[in-house]
Amino acid sequence: MGKKKPFKILIVALILFVIFKVLDNYAAKKVAFYLKSEGVSYADLDISFLSGNLELAEVFYAKDSLTISAENISIEDLSYYQYFSKKEIHFNGFKISNAKIVGKLIENEVDTVQVDSTNNKELSFLNIDNISLENIEVAIEKKNNYPLKIQSLDVSLDDFALDLNSSKKIPFTIENITSEINHFETTLSEVQDFSIGKISITNNDLVIDSLFVKPTKTRKEYIYFVEKEQELLNLFTKKIKFSNFSIEEQDSLFLGVDEIVIDETNFDLYLDATVLQHSRKHKNLYSKSLRQLPLKLDVKTLQINNSKLVYEELTKKENKAGILVFNDLEANITNINNSYFKEEKMTVAEIKTSFMKDSPLNIKWTFDINNKEDDFRLNGSLFNLKSEDMSSFLLPTMNVKVDGAIHKMYFDIEGNNYISNGKMQMDFEDLKLRILDQEKHKKKVLSWLVNLFVKDESRRGLADAEIKEVKRDQTKSFWNYFWLNIENGLKNSLI
């Protein structure tokens, strides 16, 4: 009797082995039939019905103008219990290794993706303990015919849960995400390329290393490749870090970030204003642009460190470009929040920089994003501005050369989308304006008449002036509006 028991166990095991082999073979045929019907080819298919594992080798799939190939795709530990008892799909792992996506994205006239209500009733939930994408390469052509490339993409998602019957914009949740993207590059337009050296995501932190926006055309030729007057950008940022960011679906899509830190940015903007007519398209102030975002935004702090901004503008072909330089740029901006339900209304930006290398410039700028009049207040100070620094922009753009110096300037401006007023105090010395002709020769009579009205109050302290009813050109930027206010104050201080 004792000898028969091991024999029975052996027979049962053998029967089970045969059954599972039959099931493996049946499942393999079913999967093979389905993959063939979907246009998926492969070199090898391995299925273990007992463990709930599936593995495909050398997979290839083509859809329209896109092709996807992968060295390996695997599913681990499919739960039969979850499927048969709850109509939910659950497995421990889903992995794609050494894949490549190539081809062209096509603009579809009609969205052909339809939801099968019968299938939705049968399957309600998809849960995967871990999704792993390893060494994914992308080389595609976007709908605008510009290329997009990723050298390698690695992603790991924990506790991915998808509600198949959800009507939410984000029907899935993820517990943890770790990702690394190396060498992302694309073309933005006929004149601009964009690239990022590395993007890393660990849980709720995102880091961008080596971000570039580069011109593809020279300064002389770029303006002939754009439809409207615009700047040519040349940008490099060493690092951008988003700390504790989250994306949620509330009443609308919500993006929250505790802190954004931008380190070592060099930003050069060049405008050729000699060819195309200035666009008459309305430009929103920053408060309105933030208010009209298609999502709710809450950035508690945005910090810019050790950066440089250069603006160059060519207004006359025979002149060189006027230039404004802001070195050692530091900024701290708090409460970038476009929600109507927030504790603090005001967004506050504090900016410190060296204007034209040697002139300290400090600005404090406050506004309420949800104020529909776009009210703002901007105050600050500027010290030790030399005549050659003033002339570096005024001479090429306006044929005006400045002699003398501004020792101190204080300004306080309040305004909205339409008009602004304020006050200015300025201490200047031997300030003279020389108006030149096209050959850079001094127009003596006109310069003499202008300087007759220029005050010299440096011996008795600061000259006070009002900034009166400055009207905003709504086709130009906020910073043009700011300059119009400074120009108005200068005029009222000098004359």
**Helix segment tally:** 7
Report the average pLDDT across residues.
Answer: 85
| Rg of Cα set | 32 Å
Sketch the topology as an H/E string, one letter per element: HEEEEHEHEEEEEEEEHEEEEEHEEHEH
Structural class assignment = alpha+beta
Q: Give the number of DSSP strands.
A: 21
Helix content: 10-25%
Strand content: over 45%
Main sheet record: 21 strands, mixed
Residue stretches low in confidence (pLDDT < 50, at least 5 long) are: 109-120, 439-453
Question: Care to describe what's here?
Answer:
This protein has seven helices and 21 strands. It is α+β, with helices and mostly antiparallel strands and 495 residues long. It has a 21-stranded mixed beta sheet that branches. The longest helix has 34 residues, at 4-37. The chain is elongated and about 115 Å long.
